[in-house]
Here is the input.
Amino acid sequence: MAEIDIDALARKSQKARLLAWLRHKPITGLQAWKMLGILNYKGRIHDLRR
Here is the structure.
């Protein structure tokens, strides 16, 4: 039985859920990025919302 990286799967599904949520609530996108810990994307959020 192959060992499954549960943490990686959880991160992947969490990110997918967050991105789906972002499509419905683009205005609160900054909060979502902060939740993901991707603070470096602050300057690129405008590009993502275009």
Q: What stands out?
A: Residues 9-49 form one domain. The chain has a mean pLDDT of 65.
